[in-house]
Amino acid sequence: MIAMQGFQMDLVSEHRLSQMSPVEKVRFIIDEVKSGKILVLEKGLSPEEEASLIEMTMTLIEPDGFSGIEMESYPSEVDTSFIGKILKKNALKTRLTVIGPADQLKTLKKDRNMISALISTNK
């Protein structure tokens, strides 16, 4: 039998997250990341949800246990669609977010359209 080493990456749809309250989203993300998973959220979190996630994560960090999270998102964009302009909607569109354990996920480079990350299986 071949032993596989690696990590689990879950791609989480906007639909799934939209069915959760902000508190449920934060708890879901923390539980998944604490179990060692890398999450890719189709739609990023609101600034309030990101702040809540960071705050809660800080309370859970342990010296020889949970090391916290690494989180990167594309910068938000203003809705410049034709309909958005007609309705004068200037709402920010949240974009894809990558979240994982801080001891496994390291951001190498980030710009407006690409996030380059190194995922380590060594703890």
Radius of gyration: 16 Å
User: Strand order, biggest sheet?
Assistant: 1-2-6-3
Total separate domains: 1
**Poorly predicted ranges (pLDDT <50, ≥5 residues)?**
none
Mean pLDDT: 83
Based on secondary structure, the structural category is alpha+beta
Spell the H/E element sequence. Answer: EHHEHEEHEEEE
CATH fold descriptor: Translation Initiation Factor IF3
Beta content comes to 25-35%
Instruction: Please identify, by name, the CATH architecture.
Output: 2-Layer Sandwich
Count of alpha and pi helical runs: 4
Helix fraction by DSSP (H/I, runs of at least 4): 25-40%
Strand count: 8
Biggest sheet overview: 4 strands, mixed
Q: What is the CATH level 1 assignment?
A: Alpha Beta
What is the subunit arrangement here?
A: single chain
Shape: globular
Description of the molecule:
The structure is a single chain. The chain has a single domain, classed as Translation Initiation Factor IF3. The chain is built from four helices and eight strands. The chain has helices spanning about 15-20, 20-35, 45-60, 80-85; strands spanning about 10, 40, 70-75, 75-80, 90-95, 95-100, 105-110, 115-120. A four-stranded mixed beta sheet has the order 1-2-6-3.
